[in-house]
Structures are given as structure tokens and as C-alpha cells.
Amino acid sequence: MGQTLTIKSATHSYQVVMEKGSRFRLAEQLKQHTPGYTKTVLIIDKNVADLYKEDFLSSFAEAPQVIEVASGERSKSFETYHQLVTKLLEAGLDRKAVVVAIGGGVVGDVAGFVAATYMRGIRFIQVPTTILAHDSSVGGKTGINHPLGKNLIGAFHAPSAVLYDPEILESLPEAELRSGFAEVIKHGLIHDRAFYTWLVDHIHSLTDLHVDMLGDLLLRSIKVKADVVEVDEKEQGIRAHLNFGHTLGHAIEAELGYGQLTHGEAVAIGMIFAMKLSEKVLHTTLPIDETSTYLQRLGYETSLRKGLTIAGLIDRMKLDKKASSGNMQFVLLSEVGIAGLYQVQEEVIESLLQELIG
Ligand SMILES: NC(=O)c1ccc[n+]([C@@H]2O[C@H](COP(=O)([O-])OP(=O)(O)OC[C@H]3O[C@@H](n4cnc5c(N)ncnc54)[C@H](O)[C@@H]3O)[C@@H](O)[C@H]2O)c1
Ligand SMILES: O=C(O)C(=O)C[C@@H](O)[C@H](O)[C@H](O)COP(=O)(O)O
Ligand SMILES: [Zn+2]
Predict the structure, then answer these.
(1) Which of 115, 143, 190, 259 is the S-S candidate for 73 at Cβ 3.0 to 4.6 Å?
(2) pLDDT of res. 358
(3) Residue 96 CA to ligand 1 centre (angstroms)
């Protein structure tokens, strides 16, 4: 039956189910987690469809409609959103229908936003297929990007279940292991010092992330996310801590052009920046060298790419959703495992960015 973790949202509780081979039981799982549903449509990442579509369909007596979404960050767009809603209307989905999002964070975010808004909200199930999606599939943040910035349009809409089959992660390319693992490290840094230390001591290379241990590792990381979103689902307070590394990370993604650097790679640069900022603003001492060396050993970049400008990044960061009246706010660490949200003066950010640009 695999391992489960129950998450409480404001509207309902839902389960994260981690079970090897569960992709062959999707029809059964759907009945269990969304009782009484009238119809379903599977919205699936194109690469994932090529590899696993038949596996997902194998348990249905009558195959549901499948909509394939082009792989990549560019699909988190108005165009894809519009196309998907149109296809659901044409398919005749009613308010008791269920959307199943199968893929990484891109498909989860856009399909989740479709479900959040279709007829003012229908149920949806997250079937994460990347490491990164251990983060994106839990907590109910859904949305799309705007040319001006990441995730600027969206809604909070909790899934009815998160169905993880760790076997699927075996086909992930190295760059995607790296992207997803950044959010695992983030969870340790902001909320679970022992977990962070365990990662540094035990995961020496991305090849250490093999299927036999990924289920446990991801559940531990999801537990951090669950602890936070259960207390503050709609980001009125501590949920912002999950945004550690993201103020700069999102700015980098948008400035470079979506998809040039993966989300996790951009967040990794943002985390090192936020640790340096923490030392400056909070007069604390953090293991920046250790984290930086660790990230570099795993193949992450930790400084800013050529072509990025301080002015461009600052303009983006002023549009970040945490900004208040144009003042930038950053998640900083007073120590590993303890995060907080702080307003930081533009001059301080500017001078530190200068150091990172070199
Ligand atoms: N909603 C949230 O709380 C939240 C949290 C974190 C990140 N995000 C968002 O998630 C997105 C990134 O998600 P992602 O890293 O999963 O990227 P992604 O969805 O683009 O997937 C990464 C790549 O891996 C491929 N892929 C997916 N599963 C595969 C598999 N099992 N085998 C082989 N290839 C596979 C995809 O086709 C794609 O090319 C970003 O847009 C980010 O903003 C959202
Ligand atoms: O769940 C959250 O809250 C997070 O901040 C998790 C992040 O890893 C994720 O990238 C999220 O999409 C960022 O949210 P945003 O509100 O900054 O768009
Ligand atoms: Zn993220």
C-alpha cells in the first residue's frame, strides 16, 4: 500500500501516497480519493506521456481523455491555460469532474490553476513525476507565469490527493535531479537542521538519489512543507519561509528567459545570496562555505551568470509577491533551521549583488 502522509488544508484533508508501481493503479486511486466523480481528464507532460502514458491508462476499463502539454517552463502560460480550459469545456466536464495533473511542477501548476478556476473550481489530483514536484504538488499553490514575473497569476487550490510513484523518477535526467534536489536542501535549511546535515553527510552525488531511498527522502522533505502549509496555507505568515532563495531565484528565471536555467538551479543561487544577506542583515554566522561547496560539488552554479544586470534583477524583485509597497522582502536565516521574513534596503541588496556578479 506504500507510505502515506495526511495533509490538512482549510477545505479538506488529503493524502500524499508514496507507492512504487502505483501508476498501474490510477483508476482505483481516483475512485478512492475523489468519490462520486463524473468524468476525468488526464493532463500530462509530453515527455512523461511518451514514457508512461500507457502505464497510467492501463487500469481504466474505458480510457479517459488525455491532454498532452508541451514540456518546459514556457507551458506555464496564458496560452496553455486557455487551451486547456477550452479542451475541458469541449470534453463536457461538469463540476463533479476531476482533473489529473501528471508531470512535474509545470504541469502541476498550470493544470492545478485550470482546476482552481474551471467553473470556479473542480477537484484535481497531483501525480508528481519529478523530484521537484514533491514541493509543487503539496500545499495548493497553482498558477502560471507572466512575462513580467514568475507565478504572478494563480490561486490557492488544494489537491484531493498527491499520488507519487517513485519508480517514475528513475527516468529523470541529471539536470532535473539537480533542480528538484535544491528544494530538498531548502527544506532542510529553513526548517530542519538535522535533515540538512544528513543530506550533506549522505548525498555526495546526484547518483546517490536512487529509487530505493527517494521515497523516504522525499517524504521527509514533504513533512517540512506540510508542517508549514498546515499552519499557514494562504501565506499570511510563515509560509513565506518556503520562499527561501526564491526572491532572487525567480528574478533570475524571468531575466534569463523562462527555461534557460531550471527552477531549482536558480533557487540554489538565490539561497547562497540569501545566506550572505542573512549574515549582513542579521549579524549571524552561517555555514555559507559548506553549503556553497556542497552545491558546487553537486553541479550547481552559485554565482550570477553573465548578462544579468543588477538593475534588471532589482526591478524583478520589486514585483515579487512578498514585496510590500515596492519594498523588497527576503527570507533570511538566523541559523540553519530557523527562517524569518525581513524587509531589506535596496542599497544592501545592490552591493551584495555586485559581489555575486564579481
Ligand atoms: N506550486 C508550488 O508550490 C511550486 C513549488 C516548487 C516549484 N514550482 C514550480 O515548478 C516548476 C518546476 O517543476 P519541475 O522542476 O518539475 O519542472 P518540469 O515540470 O518542467 O519538469 C522538468 C522536466 O522533466 C521532464 N520530466 C518530468 N517527469 C519526468 C520523468 N519522470 N522522467 C523523465 N522526464 C521527466 C519534463 O518533461 C521536463 O522536461 C516551476 O515552474 C516552479 O515555479 C511550484
Ligand atoms: O509553497 C510555497 O509557498 C513555496 O514558496 C514553494 C516554492 O518552492 C515554489 O517555487 C512556489 O511556487 C513559489 O511560490 P511563489 O508564491 O513565490 O510564486
Ligand atoms: Zn520553488
Answers:
(1) 259
(2) 60
(3) 27
**Residue 168, class by beta-carbon neighbours within 10 Å (0-12 exposed, 13-18 middle, 19+ buried)?**
buried
Is residue 230 domain-shared with residue 136, that is, in the same domain?
no
Binding site members for Zn(2+): 183, 246, 263
Kindly give the number of the ligand 2 atom that is closest to the alpha carbon of 109.
Answer: 12
Note whether 313 and 270 are same-domain residues.
yes
Structure confidence by residue, pLDDT tens digits, 31-80: 999 999 999 999 999 999 999 999 999 999 999 999 999 999 999 999 99
Tell which of 116, 150, 171 closes a domain: 171
Q: Is the ipTM of this complex over 0.90?
A: yes
228 and 154, same structural domain?
no
Q: How many domains does the chain have?
A: 2
How far is CA 30 from each of CA 64, 88, 103, 137, rounded to the nearest angstrom?
Answer: 12, 18, 16, 16
**Which residue, 171, 197, 231, sits at the end of a domain?**
171
CA 264 to ligand 3 center in whole angstroms:
7
